[in-house]
Amino acid sequence: MYSSLHAADSDSDDSLLSDVSASPTRRCSPPPRPAPPKHRPTPDPTSKPKRKPKPKPKPVPCSTSAPVSASASASAPPIRAAALSDPHGLAARIAPGSALTSNASTVSFSSFRRLVQSRNLSFEPAAAFTNPAPAPELEPEPEPEPAEIPSAEPSPSPAATHPPPQLRPKRVHPNSVSEVPAAAVEQPKRPRGDPAGNFVRLNINGYGRKKSFKSQARRPTKYRSWKRQQPGGGKPRAGADEEGDFVAEALLEREKNAAAGDDGVLKIVEVAREDPSEQNLESLLRKVFGYDSFREGQLEAIQNVVAGESTVLVLPTGAGKSLCYQLPAMILPGLTLVVSPLLSLMVDQLRKLPAFLPGGLLASSQTSDEFHGTLRLLRAGEIKVLFVSPERFLNEEFLQIFRDTLPISLVVIDEAHCISEWSHNFRPSYLRLRASLLRRKLNIQCILAMTATATTQTLQEIVNALEIPSGNLIQTSQIRENLKLSISMSNNRLKDLMLLLKSSPFVNMRSIIVYCKFQTETDYVCKHLCDNNINAKSYHSGLLMKKRSRVQELFCSNKIRVVVATVAFGMGLDKSDVEGVIHYRLPESLEEYIQETGRAGRDGRLSHCHLLFDSTTFYKIRSLSHSDGIDEYAMSKFLNQIFSSGNTMGCICSFPKESTSRKFDIKEEVLLTVLTQLEIGEEQYLHLLPQFSVTCTLYFHKTSPQLLADKDILLRSILNKSEMKDGSYVFEVPRVANDMRITMNEVFDRLQKLKFSGELSYELKDPAYCYMILKRPDDLNTLSANLTKWLSEVENSKIRKLDAMFALADFAVKGCKKTDGCSGSEHTPCIQKRIIHYFSKKDGTPDDDYCTPLRKSSTFLQSDIKVFLQSNSFAKFTPRAVARIMHGISSPAFPAATWAKNHFWERYMEVDFPVVIEAAKAELVKFVGKGE
Ligand SMILES: Nc1ncnc2c1ncn2[C@@H]1O[C@H](COP(=O)(O)OP(=O)(O)OP(=O)(O)O)[C@@H](O)[C@H]1O
Question: What pTM, to 2 d.p., does this model score?
Fold first, then answer.
């Protein structure tokens, strides 16, 4: 059965089949193993100086404008994020009633609140902690590959998703040796046919709300909102009990169960707060979460956090990091703010909050009503755990909420590796999350940074950025012992995938994820599987939200056997019984490999992960790793635009994302990275503002524009600054805001009011990056050289990560001597060894035995470039642009849509990118010299 697959594997013939079947089956627990030693590497805090909070220079009023305040926009219109990530700067708009917030957080927590209040702590009855509005279809936060939004359908019985603790089969943590002596106990079969699986659907319509109100009605009046006891505290929500559409009986049942345990929980929380000893915290764990004991690292992290000590927590995928903030959030008096990189992740975390812990979420693409609804809940103390994206920290309005009235006890940075530019998932907006900023803006004392995948270098940076004492690093092995890891070389991946799925052990699995690189590939592979009678669906960010959430839902309820997905599917996916993960393409880093294989076997049972390895995919991915690089020349021109003389200090400046990206041939995300670096680098040159669409077209419907302008000073300014186009007034919002010395939000608020009164309507276009210059660089050339160097180091780090992944796979299929327990295509021991080595290495340099497979020269390269330049003499190329085309990399100025048809597209993927750049440079010099 495996012959074809193994024919391609230079090492083996029937290996996978025999190896896998030789290993313990899923019916057996993973064998006990010695507990991985917890070690606390001591990052050297001196290696990078801590950044002190920089006093922000007061913006100097400019001729046409004043420093911009950050007032709230109360009535900005709902805008679809697809068109605009946060048009009104109200990026942090939560749907208190949206699909997001509603579901997961509709919980009964009144008693818990009572306890907190009885202790004079800050908490508030959960009166109607539900979301009033039906769920809108939400777009994700800005993210590379957004994942799913859960469906807006009624939730299944919570009993189905959360069995009472005593009925729950004992779980075996992959890294635990203290639990079941695995080999001795036969594992219970994974339950089939559970309609919900472990997928708890969100509460869209506020089921359970009535129950909450009943609870509140029962509550003695002395239990006041903690918020109401504070100056400026919010009012209790009125009429929220009318907001729900239906009450799901099953969820009422869940609430009843929760309510029944109220008093017990309250007492236990109280005791744990007084004395957070192991015993007391364990009681809380048993009572609220239904687990018998803490897993490795959890107790220590929780005790640290409860004691107010900032901590870095590195635990493997599925090890239970969320518990390390959930449990403290019950004990700590103030809010727990969780920063998460993906909307799907936030949604997932939100719905997993225990019944006693009310949660909320702030995401872009939510309407003003939703946003303010959540603010109301926050101010009323009805949210204890708030999930936000890092982009929120750009929003002054958001920061203001906490500054005066809402104490934050803990900030959790989930997927903290995103802070580091040396991480595989580096996100510019995470760069801003420095301890100095959090302290200065939010008065935060305690930070919990969590990740499953961080190299020593990445950890170092997290520790530095968040100023966490090096002694407060809690780290266990990043290896999951219950995963069998196999790799085979493949010359025909589709055929080999089919063979794999039709052979043991995959043939018997009912829950498998196949990871592809590209969306089209995902659809193609999925179709092929379906054509071959395999129940599969594809999942990628190109699909509509609704479709994606449906696929996840079906998968989680075991109605789909195989999901063929891009990287968009996975992070945060906590389906416990995924039995197999197949990589149809090489992961881009070992971190990605760990994250994706980490979706399997989260119930602790033996699971299988197979990688189909082929060098063509490697070349393609390696080429794509060069998409973000910038030449110093382009950087310099871009900086000139940012600091152009027309951009007055202290005024709102902006540039449209799309056209600027095309003009400099720099990707939008990279433009943002540069801006962020200008804000948080050694010198603070600018202050980044939320993104807006800056070009506004006005259509007047009733009164004449002039008459209206006579009565309205803002309209007068708008008319002064407008151009007439096709009978409509077109103006740049920042210009008007600067002229009026108000924020852009305030401009939109006013327009919105006029729109509601029927006077006008308006259209927005040109999504733009907005900023305010605080300081002009003394030497633009040096700054440009430094930024280019930094970006190139980031690019190189990415490439090293891919090379490390390639080296691992290449070693497994070609170099492994199979002396350490590897056999056939199963390479668990050697892969684990390499992973441990990789994560403990200091500088991320490749191993000594690694040698890049890319060619360093090519006979025809120079002449081909010459022909290419001659035949495309109409276009203006840079050496990088030529090299990108030769490598098949789409860029803003030379998109694949146009250039993929070119004869030379992808032709030199196997030649090292810098070599192609150098050749292009030499040819361009000759070409220009000839005056062609
Ligand atoms: N002490 C415990 N005992 C038993 N189960 C636990 C314990 N702590 C957490 N879990 C369960 O482990 C599962 C994984 O937890 P969680 O989602 O927090 O993992 P994670 O570390 O965040 O993983 P990832 O990095 O992959 O997102 C959850 O279903 C959770 O309920």
Answer: 0.69
Amino acid at 529: L
Nearest CA to ligand 1 atom 23: 318
pLDDT value for 842: 63
pLDDT on residue 848:
55
Task: Check: CB of residue 626 under 8 Å from CB of residue 842.
Answer: no
**What residues contact 279, with CB distance under 8 A and at least 6 apart?**
none
Q: What is the dihedral of CA 462, 325, 309, 39, to 10 degrees?
A: -60
SS (H, E, C) 273-309: HHCCCHHHHHHHHHHHHCCCCCCCCHHHHHHHHHCCC
The secondary structure element, H or E, covering residue 764 is strand 760-773
Helix spans in 532-578 (H): 545-556
Q: In what order do the strands lie in the sheet with 562-565?
A: 483-489, 607-613, 580-583, 512-515, 562-565, 536-539
Structural tokens at position 876:
């203006």
CA of 604 to the centre of ligand 1 (A): 11
Residue 570, SS3 per DSSP: coil
CA distance 148 to 88: 24
Residue 783's contacts (CB-CB under 8 Å, 6 or more residues apart) are 639, 777
Span 509-557, pLDDT tens digits: 989 999 999 999 999 999 999 999 999 999 998 888 788 888 988 999 9
Which residue, judged by its Cα, is nearest atom 29 of ligand 1? Answer: 574
Q: Quick one: which of 742, 620, 537 has its CA closest to 65? A: 742
Q: Name the residue at shortest CA distance from atom 28 of ligand 1.
A: 320
Is 524 buried (19+), middle (13-18) or exposed (0-12) by CB count in 10 A? middle
Write the DSSP assignment of 636-702 as a string of letters: HHHHHHHT-TTS-TTSEEEEEHHHHHHHHT--HHHHHHHHHHHHHSSS--EEEEEEEEEEEEEEE-S
Query: What is the CB neighbour count within 10 angstroms for residue 449?
Result: 28
Q: Is the ipTM of this complex over 0.95?
A: yes
Residue 361: which of 397, 331, 398 has the closest Cα?
398
User: Which residue in this structure is represented by tokens 């727990």?
Assistant: 336
Residues with Cβ within 8 Å of residue 355, at least 6 apart in sequence: 107, 108, 109, 254, 255, 258, 288
Provide DSSP, 217-248.
Answer: HHS-TT---TTTTSTTPPPPPSSGGGS-S---
Q: Helices marked H in 332-395 — which ranges?
A: 343-351, 368-379
CA distance to 212, 306, 431, 434, 455, per residue, from 420 (Å):
42, 26, 7, 11, 10
**Type and span of the H or E element at 610:** strand 607-613
- Verify whether ligand 1 is closer than 6 Å to residue 572 (CB atom): yes
Bridge partners (DSSP) listed for residue 489: 613
What is the Cα–Cα distance from 194 to 158, expressed in whole angstroms? 12
User: What DSSP state is assigned to residue 208?
Assistant: T
Of the listed ranges 97-106, 109-118, 148-157, 280-289, the one predicted with least confidence? 148-157
- With a CB cutoff of 8 Å and minimum separation 6, the contacts of 235 are 228, 376, 380
Q: What's the CA-to-centroid distance between 464 and ligand 1, angstroms?
A: 27
Is 130 in contact with 102 (CB distance < 8 Å)? yes
> Ligand 1, from 176, 198, 322, 592: best to mutate by most atoms within 8 Å of Cβ?
322
Question: Which residues, listed in sequence order, are joined to residue 486 by a DSSP beta bridge?
Answer: 610, 826
CA distance 312 to 823: 37
pLDDT at res. 117: 43
d(CA 18, CA 503) in angstroms, rounded, equals 11
CA 579 to each of CA 236, 505, 526, 775, 914: distance values in angstroms, whole numbers, following the listed order = 47, 9, 18, 55, 42
Q: 311, 469 in Cβ contact below 8 A?
A: no
Residue 430: what pLDDT? Answer: 80
C-alpha dihedral sign at 788, 793, 799, 802? negative
Question: In this structure, are residues 537 and 553 in contact, taking their beta carbons and an 8 Å threshold?
Answer: no
Can you give the pLDDT at residue 929? 60
